[in-house]
Amino acid sequence: MKRFYAKAALSAALLGGLAATGQAGPLFGQSSNSNCPCNSPYAAHPVVQEIVPVAVSPTYGQITADTLPIATTEAEATGATMLPQASISLHADSPAIEASNGIPSVRLANSRGLVLNFDVKGVGTSGVGNVELWYTRNGQVWQKYQAGAQTQSPFAIEVPEDGLYGFSAVAVSGVGISKTRPQPGDVPQVWIEVDTTKPDVRILGTQAGVDEEGRTLVVRWSATDKNLGARPITLYYAGQGQSTWTPFATNLPNTGHFTWRLSPGLPPQVLVRVEATDRVGNCGADQTNMPSPIDLARPAAVITGIGRNGVIQASGTNP
Predict the structure, then answer these.
(1) Is the bond into 41 cis (omega within 30 degrees of 0)?
(2) I need a surface site. Which of 16, 104, 157, 232 has the fewest CB within 10 A?
(3) CATH architecture for residues 200-293
């Protein structure tokens, strides 16, 4: 009798485990962590509020499920401004990509419209029933992207705001078998930082001068952005009343100042424009409102003679 009860208990445990990994269970449950204000897809696992190290990017807050709307069709998007889409590749049958030195690389996108391409390999005779997209903002809380069944690449989505997003794809066979869904602390297959913010650029002033090598114009500026590259600055000039900007210094480091050695043929006054472009292609600019005088020549006048009644007399001649 004891053996019968033991076998019955073991069978019940196995059935319970199969039900827990199947498709019939709820996708989202209430988090067991009373300090977490959001719903967690892992009701049995308390969420540890620790942020995974992701390069030097800032961390962002959690988002609730169903806040990543899918990019609509052209008919559905009539009248709306559609953002250009950044194409990203990930692999639906791969484990989370291992990071070098524990820090995963981050791909940058300057659009909130994302196209996530995926590959599915190792397909059995039942085929592919669905490919799930999971996302996280901090590597701890994962949410399943709520969309209809999808088996063909890509996922076309639009994120609600700038920030850091982690994505992983999970392929489900035709009979409902898949690899483990992302767990708290798992590294996403891809990290994407969405940055649509232009650098903040301000011209602080210009100053014309002359040194031993000739005329100069010193340009001073400030440019700030979290994704500025090593040489993000380009300087332009335009004559007063002109609409065409001509570059006079490119690929400058963001030192905040540059001395322009003026060449002949420039207009006597110029407007100056400073542009800063970040690593993802966002460009911010500022320009002077008043033209800077660059004609610093000092004319010299010399009296060449004296005269009376409008007649110039030669030097030394009595009037």
Answers:
(1) no
(2) 16
(3) Sandwich (2.60)
